[in-house]
Amino acid sequence: MADLHDPPLPWSTRLWFAFACFFRVLFDPQFAARAWQAREAAALPPAERAEPRQLERARAAGAPPAAEAAESVVAPAPTPAAAPAPAPAAAPGVSSALQLLSLLQREGRLVDFLEQDIASFGDADVGVAARMVHEGCRKALRSHAKLAPVRREEEGVQVTLEAGYSPSEVKLIGNVSGSAPYRGVLRHRGWRADELSLPTPVAGHDASIIAPAEVEL
């Protein structure tokens, strides 16, 4: 699993990877489940992530884990009953994501553009197509979502992250060491969805149909 010391991916690679994961999560339930489990595991401390794997290897080898071996020699002192484990988070529904993808396809032909093999196209042709896709998708996004930058500072300025900052809002890249406060350069302001308003599906609507086939008579 990647850690804070891994070199950051370039913007173009992250953009391609984000699109690839987006569609894979939508249409591959098993991949989506594995991605969700990885997301949950990433939120655990390193010791808690490693412990289950160590226990599995010990049991597979036929030897009791260290904790069980110590327990057989010295009886531990009684401990208070542990609080019940929280229920696992439910996997997110895909209907809203499919609906938003349908809007991006309808207004900007996003799926057509991504599924088109553009390797043989010239840069000028790709540029014209990208401009049309950008215009339509931007219209759809701004019509149904209200976005705001996570950080208000201009990109390229020096910022300070005090102790207690939210890792979900700010991702540390580069040479990360020590503890907060961190001082660095803001490379990307991030985006936050303040509001999302999608049309109410009509009865019998199949959300998996991103765009219906068209037959001209």
Structure description:
- There is one protein chain.
- The protein is mainly alpha-helical.
- The chain is 44% helix and 8% strand.
- The protein has seven helices and four strands.
- The chain has helices at residues 11-27, 29-42, 46-60, 66-73, 95-108, 110-115, 123-144, and strands at 145-148, 158-161, 182-185, 192-196.
- It has a two-stranded antiparallel ribbon. A two-stranded antiparallel ribbon has the order 2-3.
- Helix 1 (11-27) crosses helix 2 and helix 5 (95-108) packs across helix 7.
- It is extended and about 80 Å long.
- The termini are far apart.
Structural class of the helix and strand makeup?
mainly alpha
Number of helices: 7
The average pLDDT value, as a whole number, equals 79
- How helical, in percent, are the residues? 40-55%
Shape: extended
Strand order of the largest sheet: 1-4
Major beta sheet summary: 2 strands, antiparallel
β-strand number = 4
Radius of gyration: 24 Å
Report how far apart the termini are: 54 Å
Unreliable spans are 69-73
- The run of helices and strands is HHHHHHHEEEE
